[in-house]
Design brief:
alpha/beta; Spore Coat Polysaccharide Biosynthesis Protein SpsA, Chain A; UDP N-Acetylglucosamine Acyltransferase, domain 1; 6-stranded parallel sheet; 6 helices; 30 strands
Amino acid sequence: MKAVILVGGEGTRLRPLTYHTPKQMLPIVGTPMLERVLENLVQHGVTDAVLSMGYLPDHFKAAYPSNVIAGVRVTYAVEPQPLDTGGAIRFAAQHAGVDDTFLVVNGDVITDLDVSSLVAFHRKKKAHATLALHPVDDPSRFGVVATDDEGRVTAFVEKPKREDAPSNEISAGTYVFEPSVLDYIEADRRVSVERVTFPALVSEGLLFALADTSYWLDTGTPEAFLRANLDVLTGVRSVPLRPPLHEGSWIHDESQIHPSSVVVQSVIDKRCVVGPGARVENAVLLPGAVVGDNAVVESSILGPDAVVEADARLGPTCVVAGGERVLQGAVHSGDVRIGRE
């Protein structure tokens, strides 16, 4: 089966980490998010994928020169101009010559969804399109779906007010499409699949949905990105790790951790340095990050080659851009973003 992976977004909510890196290339415990997405798809028969790209496409091409990611053959479809979600799907599917049932997946959603069951449901219902659903407490940030007893979608409302949401089931970012759905997307134009295509399919009774309660996480904010990493460390989500966890943290073999430092439930990627007396807790250090003597980094993210100088303190939930420095003795906490484009 083929899949279209949407990786064209600019990741604005994750800035400054995404000024120079696509969010799908940010690592979840040492492995790029995109690979974590494809690891699940390959278990359900996905052999080929086309990456629908718009933002920093050369980063993907450079990272995977063999055109194979997690065992999946990939091709690249670079939008000539921003086409929104629907336009991107049509452009990528036609670029890849899709002519049979195919998947569409948001590249920044981490999930253990049983894709095989979703495809089987789609075929049983003879649907033109089928959505995976996931329950959430506050559906106002998502596309909210209501269905009848047969699983046919009766309403699709994009980002409603919480009190106006028809259910707490949201579109979880994995779809099964027939090629016929592409006819509902106008060519070479910006088209929102959520605001235009899905409502059109609903009006004709062609859209179905299947609820699922497996692991699911939209990683688009610093809090969610941290959680994606910590969920692996705590066993909420099980994935293979090399090297294995050490006392609840993942520490790359190429990193240097001073014996007098304290590392608690954190990700320490390759070439990182944690100095004497430093404390790193519930944090993610991307490759080459440095934590100086007696510094504290708590529930925060350090970009590649970022430096936290001696005696500085970062508290929940700070994000430091790659190559930036937090000066000696500085104290930051809250939604603090350090570093600009």
